[in-house]
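G., before I forget:
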Amino acid sequence: MTVHDTRHGLDRRVTLTAPLTLASGQMLDRVEIAYETYGSLNTDASNAVLVCHALTGDQHVASVHPRTGKPGWWSRMVGVGKPVDPARHFIVCANVLGGCMGSSGPGSVDPATGKPFAMAFPVITVADMVAVQLALLDHLGVGVLAAVVGGSMGGMQALQLAAAHPERVRSAVIIASAARHSAQNIAFHEVGRQAIMADPNWAQGNYYGGPTPSAGLAVARMAAHITYLSEAGLTEKFGRRLQDREALGFGFDADFQVESYLRHQGLSFVDRFDANSYLYITRAMDYFDLAAPHDGRLADAFKGTPVRFALVSFTSDWLYPTPESRRIVKALNAAGAEVSFVELESPHGHDAFLLESPELNRVVDGFLRAGE
Amino acid sequence: MTVHDTRHGLDRRVTLTAPLTLASGQMLDRVEIAYETYGSLNTDASNAVLVCHALTGDQHVASVHPRTGKPGWWSRMVGVGKPVDPARHFIVCANVLGGCMGSSGPGSVDPATGKPFAMAFPVITVADMVAVQLALLDHLGVGVLAAVVGGSMGGMQALQLAAAHPERVRSAVIIASAARHSAQNIAFHEVGRQAIMADPNWAQGNYYGGPTPSAGLAVARMAAHITYLSEAGLTEKFGRRLQDREALGFGFDADFQVESYLRHQGLSFVDRFDANSYLYITRAMDYFDLAAPHDGRLADAFKGTPVRFALVSFTSDWLYPTPESRRIVKALNAAGAEVSFVELESPHGHDAFLLESPELNRVVDGFLRAGE
């Protein structure tokens, strides 16, 4: 007879009993975490894999998204017969701190006032996100992770967890990510934030219960989306092809397919994401610089680490280009860590980590099995 | 005794007497052109050089800008002792059709209604801009240009003029430009347009006399500005350096220098540019595809051309990257044209064509002198 653990399964929540001290020094009380687990924790609790999501991801890594009805955002990587496999692993995925899918964020009710935090929510960091992930693992009875896996901002969390808490994880998979946010990446995020804040509906963040700053958020998403693709990919997919017309329209409708596509990306995003969460999470990414506490010496962040690392980058990713992964690999080598690295050929830019990629699956599968 | 020609000099205007038939088929009556000339037209009118400006440029190529008080936008290229030299050349620079510095554009008064055109202004193309440039040259008594010179959208006009009106120009200098707008470039423009149109002050374009959509226009400028620089240039100039502080602020002020810089770029732009003009001119650029009327065969646009061409690109320009220039060079070679091409080393991205560049000046100077 299987005893059902109510902590396990889809669509779970937990409220932390201890207040969380953030990197800023502020305290956050009664932190909520929305999460899912897939598979079963084995008797010695040695098969847990934490999957960390990217900027606009969530806990629905391999389950249908409740708002969009779409399959989990990484069901190509997580699922039966996939590299991260519930038949073999106890898989944990939580909405990040600052998010808008159930974990504490600016849209959550402030216990002190009974109203949404809005911009009174404290500014958080990737380290704070990881602290919450670890608290969740404590709750679930997971001491040491078999692996932490993430792409983009998920990779930042995996790096942060492995660097700051090497006693909590044996292997780390970091895909299409970086140990710091570049000036160009900060610049693109700032454009998105200014687009949101320029929307009068933003109202200094106090829009809950009223009209939301959807126009500003859509613009932010459109700008960001360009950075997720590659110039070559856009040219291949759209080129200068026209949308539902034979000739130029001589107007400001979406003449070109690429315009129509971008508008759709912006509009569909606002149905599933909170504008203030977008502000807070982009800020956390901008703040991320793993070498900063070590006077810029990235290798020192991994000194003597027993963690095994696998890094993957994609040739056409210009948001987190290969040199950013190489910089981490170099630091890990200098720190004497066990590290493997592969740059995969792809025309799909940063988005490649979310798309069908047998090579990526092969790399992650091989790396995880070698550590089991 | 010199007879002063009132058509010549700084801060001139002319209204075309004949209506202009646009590429869209629409007619535009009483087109106004704001322009400047520098130097004197020689007796056989053979020393005229037309300088074409980029998206946000204007006729003040080498004179102080009346709104910003700054030197002319290309005073590094145009001036005494410079490659385009009033001691040698009769230099003409006009605000483009659709602009906001005196030439007819959406902010101009519609003679039919006595009110600003706003979005009733017809959608224009680069070919329409060139038609207006030629009408201005007619007015000035310039039959055949010694040269047309332009960077970015100015290069598009130079290409269009040389391709469609080879009898009006002997030499063309095209810097950091392209014969078509790529999908990624259209995408970035669309983000800017959506940012403007999302601003409630835009009011379907009818904001003249009231509050302007400055917040939306600033966001558009910020997004565009990132594309004018290079990742390496941004890293070199700003990196992750903080602005006027010792540590992260844990807030949404401009913590990083790059944020502060971008915000400044956005805010200062709205003082000198009209949002509707931004919509119209970006649209014209998106529509530009010199090969389109020739079933995609760019070489056919230059068939049998007697015009001499010089093309220049910059290594770090990812908005109009070197392959776009090479594509033009290849087409010109196929058409049997006289063409020289150089890719210049620069960390400054697309902006390089506006910055101090002795190599660029040497190339342009040598090319112009060889044709005189």
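Chain A has a mean pLDDT of 96. The CA atoms of residues 97 and 129 of chain A lie 5 Å apart.

More on Monday.
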